[in-house]
Structures are given as structure tokens and as C-alpha cells.
What does this fold into?
Amino acid sequence: MPLTEETLLGKSVEELTTWVKQQGQPAYRGKQLHQWLYQKGARSLTEISVFPKALREELKDYPIGRSSIYHCSVAPDKTRKYLLQLEDGLIIETVGIPTAKRLTVCVSSQVGCPMSCDFCATGKGGYERNLSSAEIVDQVLTVQEEFQERVSHVVFMGMGEPLLNTKEVVKAIKILNQDMGIGQRSLTVSTVGVKKKILELAHHKLQVTFAVSLHAANQSLREKLIPSAKFYPLPKLLADCRKYVEITGRRVSFEYILLGGVNDLPEQAIKLAKCLKGFQSHVNLIPYNPIEEVDYRRPNADSINSFSSILEEQNIAVTVRYSRGLEANAACGQLRAMLAQKE
Ligand code: SAH
It folds into this structure.
């Protein structure tokens, strides 16, 4: 279990009010504490200047639940990749991605990942544990503090498989939304698909963007790329996605990493279009970012364009998403791997 479970970060205003009362303080200090934790991003109770001096002194070592920055690397496109050190010493990746109108944070939901997708650097590094909701929210607060700018969007596309940690991920979504004021539609949960978990998430009826990493439109290729797909056949996954749309009223986005000569052929685009026909969906094509451990290659611009055009001709909404921050090794699990080599 995460060591930070009992930290102040992660608690609601009601829970914080109970906590301040337990410290012998009046109830209104709960609201103050809430504001300092989630709006001002306090790192220690001594910073809370509206608290009496004696109280600040008494609680100065009380754990709030903030990580420390272990490493930061900045790409020329201003994307910043952080390695954050948790209370138990483990390291996670968080990326801050600024654009003209947005500041997006790519958060981790686990330390490492057990899914072992063949093209993914995180999967090669093994799995340690789930993150607590506080550890997820901390990543957003850290990027906000570092950029000195309000975070507008959060994507659960860092380390880990969010649907293996649904309870804490849903809790974090609620905190980001209700306590930090980020609209649910500006939050994206990305999953490779975990049996039963898509419908479990649907029943929370969140308004977040829901993305499924598909990567192949046939079962045998999908199993090669994503070993866990063996336990969740494509027809069942797609049926659950359709139910997700019915239950939540939100469309599903499908992510499709493009691996040259592996899943980027025209007939594979036609097969993908067939799978998604009549579906309220959107496809994000992600040209592969090379990682050291495997031999895939990024397709050239012509095959990316023709794959995308075939989908468009079939009336499927499609965008090509290039990863930001490649120069900072910020794409997908790479910075941690690079530092691990050095150590
Ligand atoms: N486990 C979740 C979220 C983490 S990965 C999921 O799989 O959806 C977030 C996205 O980054 C996924 O679509 C994943 O397939 C993609 N990704 C992983 N490694 C990549 C690489 N080397 N190049 C491009 N995209 C990659």
C-alpha cells in the first residue's frame, strides 16, 4: 500500500474539517486548509499563514503528501519531464506540456506497469505498485507550481494502467474536478482495456474523455503487441466500449500507435474502419516513438497520411498525434530508463 494513504492531500473538505477539529481547532480551519492544499499548493503546514503561529509550529512535520522533484528535463518545445520521488523513495514520471492555450499534465497512475506492451518503455521497467489519489493529484500540483500557471488538462497517459487502479483514479478525478476546478471534459483516462473494468468505470458516469489503446484491429496482432489482450478478446472489448457510450453518453476515443510495416498497412486501416463502423468514436493515430529495447520503426509521412485518409474516407474522425518533448526523452517511459542506465 502507498505510504501516503494517511496524508492530508487526498482528503475532501469535510475530511479536512474533521481532521482540524481533532487537532482542537475550529471547523472553519478545514476550509482554509483545503484552499491552501488544493489552490495554493502548500508543501508544508508552516506555509499556511492564516493558521496561528503555535499551530503551524506544532504541525510543522505533519505529512501533507507531496513528492520531491528528483530530476527535470526540458525539451526545446518547452515540454518538461519530471521524475518525482515518492515518500517511499520510488520514482514516477510526470510530463508538463504547454501550448498557447493549454497546460496539460500527463500523469502516472502506477509506479511502472504490469501490462508489458511490446512497444512501451514503461512496461520494460517492471511494476511496483498503485499510486494513491494523493500521489496522482500531487503530480498536477507540482506541474502547476513549476510552470506558475493553472493546469487546464490532465491525461492519464503516464506510467501505469489506470483501470488496474480504478478506485484511486476515480478519487483523483473527483479531486481534480471538485477541489481543483478542472472540468471533467478536460480530463482523459487512457486504457489498454481490462476485463470488467470498462463497465465499472462507465457506472461512475464521469464526463471525462475515455480513450482505449487499440493498436490493432485483429486479435492475433493485438495479442502480440499487448500480451494482456489474450484475456480480453477484441469483440468483447469493443462491445464493452459500445456499452460505455450508452451508459455515459460520451464517445470513446481509440488510440492506435503506428508501427511501420506492422499495423500501418492500407488493409489494416480498412479493417480498423470496419471494427468502428456505426460507433460514436474518434481515432488518434500515434506514430511510434522509438525505444531502445525493441526494433519497431516509425512509419514515414506518406504511410501515416494514407492510413489516416482511408479512415476519413470511411467517415471516421481521425487525428494524428505526435508526441511532444521527444528531445527531453519525455515520450513514454524513456527518461526513467535513461537515468536507470546511468545509475
Ligand atoms: N496504460 C494506458 C496508459 C498509458 S500509455 C494505455 O495503454 O492506454 C499512453 C499511450 O501511450 C498509449 O496509447 C500507449 O500505447 C502510448 N505509447 C506507449 N509507448 C509508446 C511509444 N513508444 N510510442 C508511441 N506511443 C506509445
Q: What stands out?
A: The first helix runs from residue 13 to 22. The chain has a mean pLDDT of 92. Residues 119-120, 157, 161, 190-192, 213, 255, 257, 286, 288-289, 291, 323, 332 surround S-adenosyl-L-homocysteine (CB under 6 Å).
